[in-house]
Design brief:
Distance between the termini: 26 Å
Shape: rod-shaped
Radius of gyration: 27 Å
Number of strands: 0
Structural class: mainly alpha
Helix content: over 70%
Number of domains: 2
Largest sheet: none
Order of helices and strands: HHHHHHHH
Number of helices: 8
Length: 173
């Protein structure tokens, strides 16, 4: 199972702690050896170490603010949707459209399914399953469902039940 960034985040935290320890130790060693170094070498080394500490601080500030992370916004959205839909959605196109947050295209797909049903291009069971997936995806994307669509979901409770334990998370910029 994927860690969805948890292992990587722990490794980053550990690496940052090690880097901080190394830089503080480097400053301590520099102070301890001050008498053995000429002033130019001491000042240059101390300035370099302080610059590294400032860079580390800048990185930590950005991480705390959320400006940078191990996972890009799109990557986070992808991980969130993969986790959320891994057992719920069966139709690859619905997964793709949901992951891209494209409610209009989901509505278009829903229309196409209804046309396919009228033309007997597929079984009612297959179309109902895809229609249920699309309606659930639309609802999770915050789209308003019609009374008819809500009744469909209620009637096909087995489709909605597949989503019962799925936790949809919002990924923010």
């Amino acid at each position: 199972m994927n860690s969805f960034g948890k292992v990587e985040t722990e490794k980053l935290k550990h690496n940052l702690e090690c880097q901080l320890d190394r830089l503080v130790e480097q400053l301590q060693d520099l102070e301890n050896c001050r008498d053995e170094l000429d002033s130019e070498e001491y000042n240059e080394t101390k300035e370099d170490t302080m610059e590294q500490l400032k860079e580390l601080n800048d990185s930590l500030t950005k991480l705390v603010k959320g400006d940078i992370s191990l996972i890009s916004t799109l990557g986070a959205m992808q991980l969130a949707t993969q986790a959320a839909i891994s057992q719920a959605f069966k139709t690859p196109e619905v997964i793709r459209l949901f992951g891209r947050r494209e409610p209009k295209q989901l509505r278009d797909k829903l229309f196409d399914l209804e046309q396919d049903l009228k033309l007997n291009k597929s079984t009612t069971e297959a179309i109902d399953r895809q229609k249920g997936e699309i309606l659930i995806a639309l609802r999770q994307l915050g789209e308003q469902l019609s009374t008819e669509e809500l009744q469909f979901l209620e009637k096909h409770n087995d489709i909605s039940t597949a989503f019962k334990n799925v936790e949809f998370i919002e990924v923010k910029e």
